[in-house]
Amino acid sequence: MGAQMLAVVALLALLSQALASDPSPLQDFCVAIKDTDYPVFVNGKFCKNPNYTTADDFFFSGLDKPGNTSNPVGSKVTPVNVMQLPGLNTLGISLVRIDYAPYGLNPPHTHPRATEVLVVLEGRLYVGFVTSNPDNRLFTKVLNKGDVFVFPEGLIHFQFNVGHTNAVAFAGLSSQNPGTITIANAVFGAKPPIKDDVLAKAFQVDKKVIDYLQAQFWMDNN
Predict the structure, then answer these.
(1) Residues pairing with 136 in the sheet
(2) CA distance 188 to 123
(3) Which residues constitute the signal peptide according to the record (predicted)?
């Protein structure tokens, strides 16, 4: 009985992993098209007729160009997901280029639908992620050119340029549309705002502190 229970637990674990990623495609490809006028929602994008598909549907140009880091956080994320590259539809993968000014930060954020694997091309980055409650353990590492680090799906993570020069990283994500929730933006820049009573209680600070934070412009570097 013990061995059978272990087998069931193992099977459930495998099933949960399978269900936690983008659905597998049921055809060679499904190039995304703009949503039609029909009142139908799909988990992904509508498929282009394969007979009208071209090589350009699987092509994106521009990741050789640095992003503009002249902003309050000093970083810029250039995404290549299904919105920019329609051929990614149903393939369960995407990527980003991230540029960092000296001491630039990709602020604490999470991808609700993807694990991220990051590789440093230039510069030196201090990176990390925090585990879920109740432990909230912080895992950090300083990465140099050629180093790789993985951020597990859904966990809060960040990258900070600790060098005196610009830094560049590329990252692969396990979803065609991983989504990004920047923590400060979501909490203090929500529209409409979260009641300051709620946030004052949550952060154990005076409401004036919350009002000040909610009045700031929260930069989206994506």
Answers:
(1) none
(2) 31
(3) 1-20
Tens of pLDDT, residue by residue, the chain (222 residues) = 455 555 555 555 554 454 446 666 656 778 888 766 655 566 678 888 889 999 999 999 999 999 999 999 999 999 999 999 999 998 999 999 999 999 999 999 999 999 999 999 999 999 999 999 999 999 999 999 999 999 999 999 999 999 999 999 999 999 999 999 999 999 999 999 999 999 999 999 999 999 999 999 888 898
Q: How many domains does the chain have?
A: 2
Residue with tokens 């597998």: 24
CA pair distance 111, 79, nearest whole angstrom:
13
Helix/strand/coil percentages in the chain, nearest 5? 25, 25, 50
Q: Tell me: do 51 and 117 sit in the same domain.
A: yes
Task: Look up the pTM and report it.
Answer: 0.84
Please state, in angstroms and rounded to a whole number, the distance separating the CA atoms of residues 88 and 16. Answer: 23
Residue 158: strand pairing partners: 128
Nearest to 86 by CA among 118, 114, 58: 58
Q: Do residues 175 and 22 make contact, with C-beta atoms less than 8 angstroms apart?
A: yes
What is the number of other CB atoms lying within 10 angstroms of the CB of residue 107?
Answer: 18
Q: Are 152 and 113 in contact (CB under 8 A)?
A: no
Supply the range of the domain harboring residue 84.
22-179
